[in-house]
Write a structure and sequence with these properties.
single chain; about 270 residues; alpha/beta; Rossmann fold; seven-stranded parallel beta sheet; two-stranded antiparallel sheet; globular; binds NADP nicotinamide-adenine-dinucleotide phosphate
C-alpha cells in the first residue's frame, strides 16, 4: 500500500505536527485536506504547500463543533471525491493542578481533544467505510500515565485509548482501520499555545531541557501506522520506556514524576 492518490484529512494541520504530516503525506503522493480554526494561518500553510505543487485544499472549522465537522467532510468529498484517512490531530494542552484549574479548562480540553476527535470521525465514517480507510487518533505519552500539572490533558488523551479500543472491534467487519499513536515529546511550533490555569491562552512554555523528536519524524511514524494498518504505537524511546515501566513497574515511575513535579513547583 502507498499514499499515492489517497485523500487524507488532517485536523489541526496549519502548524506543528499536523503541518509536518501534511507535507510528508503530499510528498508521498497523497491529496491532503488541511484544517484549523485560524483562517489566516491556515491559508498561509495552504498557499505555502500549493506553491510547492502539492495537491491540497483547506477548510477552516472547529473540530469541537459537529456542524463544522460535517462541513469539513463535505468539503473533502466535494474536492477529492473520496476519503481514505482521517488523522484526528487537532489538540490543545494546559498547565495547572486540579486544585487551581478553572473548571472551564477541563471543559475546553474535553471539547477539543475528545469531542474534537469523535465528531470528525463520525462525520467521516460513511466515506471511510467505502474506501476501507483509516482513522488515526493522535494520543500522547500523557495518555499512558497521568502527568501532574497536566491532569485535564492526560485525562483527555487517556480517553482516546478507550475510544480507539471500542471502535477497533466495532469497525472490524467494515474493514475500516483504527489506530492510536502515543506521541512523545515533540519539537514545538514557535506559534504553539496552551491554556494556563485560568483558561487564558498562553505561549507554550519552553521545554528545551527535554529531548524532543522533530515533527517530521512523528509524521513519518504516523504514515507508517496508516500504511501498515497498525493499532497502537508508542513513539520515541522515552515514550516506550514510560509505557513499559508504567505497565510493569508503576511503583518506580511515580516517585520519578513526583520528584520532578515538586522540584519544578519549588
Ligand atoms: N507537541 C508535543 O510535544 C505533543 C506530544 C504528544 C502529543 N501531541 C499531540 O499532537 C497533536 C498536535 O500537537 P502540536 O504540538 O502539533 O499542536 P500545535 O502546534 O498547537 O497545533 C495544533 C493545531 O491544531 C489546530 N487546532 C487547535 N484546536 C482546534 C480546533 N478546535 N479545531 C480545529 N483545529 C484546531 C491549531 O490551529 P488553530 O489554533 O488555528 O485552530 C493547529 O493547527 C495534538 O493532539 C497534541 O496533543 C503533541
Amino acid at each position: 500500500m502507498s499514499l499515492q492518490n489517497k485523500s487524507i484529512l488532517i485536523t489541526g494541520s496549519s502548524m506543528g505536527i499536523g503541518k509536518a504530516m501534511a507535507y510528508q503525506m503530499c510528498e508521498q503522493g497523497a491529496k491532503v485536506i488541511l484544517n484549523a480554526r485560524n483562517e489566516q494561518r491556515l491559508n498561509r500553510t495552504y498557499e505555502e504547500m500549493k506553491s510547492k505543487g502539492y495537491e491540497v485544499t483547506a477548510v477552516a472549522g472547529d473540530v469541537s463543533a459537529m456542524e463544522d465537522c460535517q462541513r469539513i467532510i463535505k468539503h473533502a468529498i466535494d474536492q477529492f471525491g473520496q476519503l481514505d484517512a482521517v488523522v484526528n490531530n487537532a489538540g490543545i494542552s494546559m498547565e495547572g493542578t486540579v486544585e487551581e484549574l478553572d473548571p472551564e479548562v477541563f471543559q475546553k480540553l474535553m471539547d477539543v481533544n475528545i469531542l474534537g476527535s469523535i465528531y470528525p470521525t463520525k462525520a467521516a465514517l460513511p466515506y471511510l467505510k467505502k474506501t476501507k480507510g483509516s482513522i488515526i487518533f493522535i494520543g500522547s505519552a500523557a495518555g499512558i500515565r497521568g502527568i501532574p500539572n497536566h491532569s485535564a490533558y492526560s485525562a483527555s488523551k487517556m480517553a482516546l485509548t478507550a475510544l480507539a479500543e471500542s471502535m477497533k472491534i466495532e469497525m472490524k467487519q467494515s474493514g475500516v482501520h483504527v489506530g492510536i499513536a502515543y506521541v512523545g515529546f515533540t519539537q514545538n511550533d514557535p506559534e504553539k499555545t496552551i491554556y494556563d490555569k485560568d483558561g487564558n491562552i498562553i505561549p507554550q512554555p519552553s521545554r528545551e531541557f527535554i529531548k524532543a523528536e522533530p515533527p517530521e519524524k512523528v509524521a513519518q511514524r504516523v504514515i507508517n501506522m496508516i500504511l501498515k494498518r497498525k493499532f497502537k504505537e508508542v513513539f520515541t524511546p522515552l515514550g516506550k520506556l514510560n509505557a513499559f515501566m508504567n505497565r510493569f513497574f508503576p511503583f518506580v515511575v511515580e516517585p520519578i514524576l513526583s520528584r520532578n513535579y515538586h522540584k519544578n513547583k519549588a
